[in-house]
Design goal:
Chain lengths: ~230, ~850
């Protein structure tokens, strides 16, 4: 669903002034950043989802509009900033890191080299997504999902408790639309980390079923909590 | 009225069959019709409503077809309204039958069935009735040269309306293309009364102007009302009973209002005083097509006595026998008022009757000024600038859909179109570069160019792209609309109309609003349909669902300013209005030409400054945003402002000491460039430009139903470009777009250029002219640096508290089955200290699981 641009939040600053908020899910303690990343201090793990590298390239390849080719740079800048602050030992990407497998292989050298360096510096786990079912040609392990500490990391929410992405959740707040992480009893759904990503409103039946009643964390310059009603 | 010299009237070169048919009907052609038929090249007919324009436009076609059979498409008729095509097809049936012509007349619009459209491409009718968008679509097919090779004539109806928007620019580019296919083409433009016929002829690429006798002067006056108009507000509810009485005394009355919301409210107000239960209908663009068609049919059959309407009835056929037009609210625009007046009594030789009901005291002034303008035959309108380049971008892409093209040939073709006579090769090349490579310094798309040069010709790299490009044809970029349906016991019921999605986004279940003359309660949004239920309440909680407001024209604003400033003239005003201005002159001063009056006064501990700019609502709004920002920089603590068509009122903690300094044009222009860059209206201008130029594709195969978002906000693209490529073609076009329309910075510049002196009055208290502004709704409060964040925070806190969710959240956070954890601290804006570095966790591999 699209909405009028003037009601949209500016979510595109490459690096927000970082803000974060504590969040508990399934007995574990996390830090949610307003870049859209989730940090798990006990495991030294940073979790990001739906980075969609190569999206502009894929749209162009299919004969679509030639979007400003800076989206990946901005996504990388946000990732860099979050890594700098959290300094994780491990990064879990919850899928759709690449807009498709071909996009993953066709990244411009500049983007590719930086991503390679980042992935090489930590223990990197690429959970596969519906956009990128194959393993990327980058350091790290590629897994369909990962069970740990009593919950599952996967791309699309299934049997909870799990931490997932896929839906690009957003919430409407005071006439604006903001990216959001949705916290329900059984599911924690992260927003898309990539620049050129649309979103699904938290009121959509698919998301309501998974997370309501619960809480949405709306990501702006600050992080705001909003109820998710059934 | 401008009269055009014409060659001495020759004998009408019409077929004898036509003359005989006219005689049989007992019709004598009007002089302007005869003049039109004498013109051999392109012609522009200017005639008031009811002048028999459309039939006149077709007569040469009938004449030619009587003389000689024609193979394939002979005449193309283009109008701004789809519905008009249907009506024209119907009204041409009689003359075609009467003349015994064996020809096919078909329409082709967005409503035409797919199979019919395909057939039309293979076997076009003799006369095709269409819209600018459908024509652009036809021209994008490879078979276009064949379809149009034998085309003889084009009739463009309501060309004055098309010329006011980018649809006209697109149509003129299409006409240039058609002239290339059919060099001996004759174009006939049909226009209502306009202020500058030669300019409209130039827009057509040059044409002989045929001006009809404007007919008798209209009988137009203010409607006498029982009560004086209120000091502020719009809608004219105070005069509902007076309007009702006027309806009761007439045959059929059209009551025009300026916005859909006002039309809804006035319709409701009329019903409350409709003691005789006269049949009254409501007609506006947000109503469903069925609802509008019902009203149109009822008008035509004489079943209605009054119709409350908006611009939705400005164009098109005359429905029914209207004998009185009532304009409620300021006319805003003299030309439009004249065109509306023409809706009454469409017999060409008797005066039209119209009455004006000003909604407030300021509008009394505007109404008097407009009445004088109509009596003097003065019209308004802004000169048309050169055609916008985003339309050229779309034209280039659509040309490529039809087949490979030569850039030099396309450039000279585009230059032959009226709006693009002055386009430079560099500008054209910019557009071509944008279409081909995106136009970024970073050459990211060398492999995936949209257009490729093969040999000397440009073509689509991927021919499959043509489908999506065709799905996105057009220059109308509305905000997204959602359908509204009544929820019934059996599920979704009838369609009531549409509301803007941004308005829908602000609704919560239980909110009530007006649509289709009834108060409804918002229930839910399901599959992009807004479901509502009837609400017995008489007063809706929220009435306004249209954000855009039309600003008063430059000429009419100047007339209002002159009227206020000229005390000798005040005798023409109603007595209470005259006294109001007299009091103003005594306490402060009267605004006049060349002098920008600024008043400062204190009220309830706040410093007020009122700027009488007479530059229109949109420009004042922009000025308000700019000035308050400068006041913020000066530490004056601006708190809010109200913008109307005449003035801008700002309130602040400290007074504005030197208004001249903060109005300095250089500083304003600076502020405009820097600050508006982040503004929502600028983003809206960007979206319009980017959609037309093909950078954003609104329509993609299958996205509307898939639920998941395939597109993303245009704001992201705007911000990305602003950061990385601020001089990209799209950004340059966005800045141009912003000098007009909603931002209207051009009028601020013009107002400042016209100002010789700033007259600053320190008034002892609120002044008579400023008082109504204090009562205006639609105030804009200033958001400080983090004001917006505070607003969001407050809203989130309110929602959490209202939902009683604090406890629930604690429970969820505690995790399944565990004891509730203490409430987390409120969101903090600094990252916590980094935990001590630990050993790498043990690597674990999850067992593979089936994925879906």
């Amino acid at each position: 669903m699209t909405s009028d641009p003037h009601t949209r939040a500016d979510t595109s600053e490459p690096v927000h002034k970082l803000a974060c908020t504590p969040l508990r899910f399934a007995g574990a303690q996390f830090q949610l950043y307003n870049t859209g990343a989730l940090y798990w201090p006990a495991q030294g793990t940073l979790i990001v989802s739906d980075m969609h590298f190569g999206k502009a390239e894929r749209i162009a390849r299919r004969g679509g509009p030639l979007l400003p080719p800076f989206g990946d740079l901005d996504t990388l800048a946000r990732l860099d900033a979050t890594l700098f602050v959290t300094r994780p030992d491990r990064v879990i990407s919850l899928g759709d890191a690449f807009d498709d497998d071909a996009a993953g292989h066709a990244l411009p050298a500049a983007i590719r080299n930086r991503l390679h360096a980042i992935a090489d510096a930590t223990d990197w786990i690429w959970i596969t997504g519906n956009h990128d079912p194959g393993a990327p040609d980058l350091p790290g392990r590629s897994l369909p999902q990962l069970h740990e500490s009593g919950f599952t990391f996967r791309h699309i929410a299934e049997q909870g408790p799990d931490i997932s992405g896929h839906y690009h959740p957003k919430v409407a707040l005071a006439g604006r639309t903001l990216r959001a992480a949705l916290l329900g009893r059984d599911h924690l759904i992260l927003p898309a980390f990539g620049s050129y990503t649309g979103g699904l409103p938290s009121t959509h039946p698919a998301l309501k079923t998974l997370t309501a009643p619960g809480v949405a964390y709306a990501l702006g310059p600050k992080i705001l909590r909003v109820p998710l009603r059934t | 009225m401008i009269s055009q010299p014409l060659p001495p009237r020759a004998k009408t070169p019409l077929s004898p069959a036509i003359s005989a048919w006219f005689a049989a009907q007992g019709w004598t052609p009007h002089p302007h019709q005869l003049d039109l038929w004498t013109v051999t090249g392109d012609a522009l007919l200017i005639a008031p409503t009811g002048g028999g324009k459309t039939l006149a436009g077709f007569v040469p076609t009938f004449s030619a077809l009587c003389e000689e059979r024609h193979q394939g498409l002979h005449t193309l008729y283009v109008s701004p309204l789809r519905a008009l095509s249907n009506d024209i097809a119907r009204s041409l049936r009689a003359p075609v039958a009467g003349l015994g012509l064996d020809i096919r007349i078909e329409d082709r619009t967005g409503d035409t069935r797919q199979a019919t459209r395909r057939r039309q491409r293979v076997d076009p009718p003799h006369i095709l009735l269409t819209t600018p968008e459908s024509l652009a679509l036809l021209l994008s097919y490879p078979e276009a040269p064949r379809i149009f090779a034998g085309l003889k004539r084009i009739v463009v109806d309501e060309i004055h309306a098309l010329a006011e928007s980018k649809r006209g620019d697109q149509l003129m580019l299409g006409l240039a293309r058609l002239r290339h296919f059919a060099p001996d083409l004759q174009v006939t433009g049909l226009s209502a009364t306009v202020e500058d016929p030669p300019a409209l002829a130039a827009f057509m690429g040059g044409a002989t102007v045929v001006a009809a006798d404007p007919g008798p002067r209209p009988d137009i006056a203010m409607l006498p009302t029982t009560h004086a108009p209120p000091w502020s507000g719009g809608g004219g509810r105070y005069a509902a009973r007076d309007v009702m009485d006027a309806i009761a005394q007439a045959r059929l009355v059209l009551v025009f209002l300026n916005t859909r919301a006002q039309a809804e409210l006035f319709f409701q107000a009329l019903w409350e005083v409709n003691d005789a239960t006269l049949p009254i209908g409501l007609h506006h663009g947000a109503l469903s097509r069925e609802a509008r068609e019902r009203v149109e049919a009822a008008m035509a059959s004489g079943a209605l006595r009054g119709v409350v309407c908006t611009g939705s009835l400005d164009l098109g056929l005359d429905w029914g026998d209207v004998d009185l037009v009532i304009q409620v609210g300021a006319p805003k625009n003299i030309k439009r008022l004249v065109q509306r007046i023409g809706r009454a009594n469409h017999r060409y030789d008797t005066p039209s009757r119209a009455r004006i009901v000003p909604a407030n005291r300021f509008e009394v002034l505007e109404s008097v000024a407009a009445l004088e303008a109509v009596q003097q035959g003065a019209l308004d309108g802004d000169p048309r600038g050169p055609g916008p380049l985003e339309v050229v971008c779309q034209h280039i892409l659509l040309t490529a859909c039809a087949g490979p093209f030569d850039a030099d040939a396309l450039f000279s073709e585009i230059r032959s179109a009226g709006p693009y006579h002055t386009i430079s090769r560099a500008q054209f090349d910019d557009c071509l570069e944008f279409c081909a490579t995106g136009g970024y310094a970073l050459r990211a798309y060398d492999r995936w160019q949209r257009l490729m040069q093969r040999g000397d010709l440009w073509q689509l790299r991927d021919p499959r792209a043509a489908r999506v490009l065709r799905m996105n044809i057009g220059t109308i970029v509305d905000s997204e609309k959602l359908r509204v349906r009544l929820r019934t016991k059996r599920g979704a019921g009838g369609a009531l109309g549409e509301i803007e999605e941004s308005f829908a986004a602000t609704l919560t279940p239980g909110d009530s609003f007006l649509i289709g003359g009834q108060v409804v309660r918002y229930e839910a949004m399901r599959d992009l349909v807004v479901e509502v239920s009837p609400d017995p309440a008489r007063t809706p909680k929220i009435a306004v669902y249209s954000g855009t407001k039309m600003a008063t024209s430059t000429q009419l604003s100047a007339r209002v300013q002159a009227l206020i400033g000229d005390r000798a003239h005040h005798g023409a005003l109603p007595q209470d209005t005259g006294k109001w201005l007299e009091l103003q002159a005594r306490i402060s001063a009267l605004p006049e030409r060349g002098v920008l009056l600024v008043e400062s006064f204190w009220r309830t501990g706040r410093a007020y400054s009122c700027f009488y700019g007479f530059a229109g609502r949109n420009a004042h709004q922009t000025l308000g945003l700019l000035l308050t920002r400068r006041m913020e920089d000066l530490g004056l603590g601006p708190l809010g402002f109200t913008a109307t068509d005449y003035a801008l009122l700002i309130w602040s903690v400290d007074p504005v000491g030197d208004p001249e300094a903060i109005l300095d044009p250089v500083g304003l222009r600076d502020g405009f460039a820097h600050w508006l860059g982040e503004n929502a209206v600028m983003k809206r201008a960007f979206r319009t430009v980017a959609v037309i130029a093909g950078l954003i594709q609104r329509n993609l195969p299958g996205t509307r139903s898939s639920g998941k978002q395939a597109t993303f906000s245009s704001d992201i693209l705007y911000d990305t470009l602003r950061r990385h490529a601020p001089d990209h073609l799209m950004m340059r076009l966005t800045r141009q777009e912003a000098t007009r329309g909603l931002v209207d910075f051009g009028r601020i510049e013009a107002m400042l250029a016209d100002t010789n002196t700033v007259h600053h009055v320190q008034a002892p208290h609120v002044t008579p002219l400023a008082a109504p502004l204090l009562l205006e709704s639609g105030r804009v409060s200033i958001r400080g640096g983090d004001g917006e964040a505070r607003m969001l925070e407050a809203e989130a806190a309110r929602l959490m508290a209202e939902a009683g969710l604090q406890d629930l959240e604690a429970e969820i956070m505690a995790g399944g089955g565990q004891a509730p954890a203490p409430l987390p601290a409120p969101a903090v804006s600094t990252p916590p200290p980094k935990p001590a570095k630990r050993a790498k966790p043990r690597r674990r591999t999850a067992p593979p699981a089936p994925r879906n």
